[in-house]
Amino acid sequence: MATEGQFEYESVLCVKPEVNVYRIPPRSSNRAIRAADWKLDAPDWSGRMRVVARGKVAYVKLEDKISGELFAQAPVDEYPGIAVETVSDSSRYFVLRIQDDNGRSAFIGIGFGDRGDAFDFNVALQDHFNCVCPKRCTTRSNALEFLMNGVVTCAPKKRISRPPALFCVVTVPNHD
């Protein structure tokens, strides 16, 4: 008998060929994390990043550029959340909570050389969770689809503005 997870397909949300990984110092308090506290000039690892989705969960996978061997993986159940956090002083750096197969977790820093790559990563996660999140169920059919399948498809938004060929003419009486 097949398990439920066997039939879930994996869709690729984002691939970035160059990402740097940093060891980050432990948090001393609840203050915001700063990338300036990391050794940005000497990353601990460099490789490729793939963001993939399986059902409701997105996975940030860090892989070797050449062999494709998995270095680390971060399951993301919600975004924004504890699995992926932004830093306070740069838009190019994030904190990931990586997990191994035994459930042990650690926090690492990742950084992109280009702001555009960081933006793409951010948008890929936002788009995934905007389509999957039950808070976004705005119609009965979407809510039913979420209850049955656990996923809401992204449908184009309805156009509610006036059609371009429709003109309004207003006559104002002359008050002399």
UniProtKB/TrEMBL annotation:
Classification via Pfam families: DUF1681 (PF07933)
Keywords per UniProt: Cell membrane, Cytoplasmic vesicle, Endocytosis, Membrane, Phosphoprotein, Protein transport, Repeat, Transport
One example of a Gene Ontology biological process annotation: endocytosis
Organism for this UniProt entry: Hippocampus comes
GO cellular component terms given for this protein: clathrin vesicle coat; plasma membrane
Function of the molecule: Involved in endocytosis.
Top-level taxon of origin: Eukaryota
Record-given protein name: Adaptin ear-binding coat-associated protein 1
Domain (NECAP PHear) ranges: 9-132
Entry keyword Cytoplasm: no
Subcellular location: Cell membrane; Cytoplasmic vesicle, Clathrin-coated vesicle membrane
Signal peptide region: none
Family: Belongs to the NECAP family.
Claim: Repeat is one of the keywords in the record: yes
CDD domains attached to this UniProt entry: PHear_NECAP (cd13228)
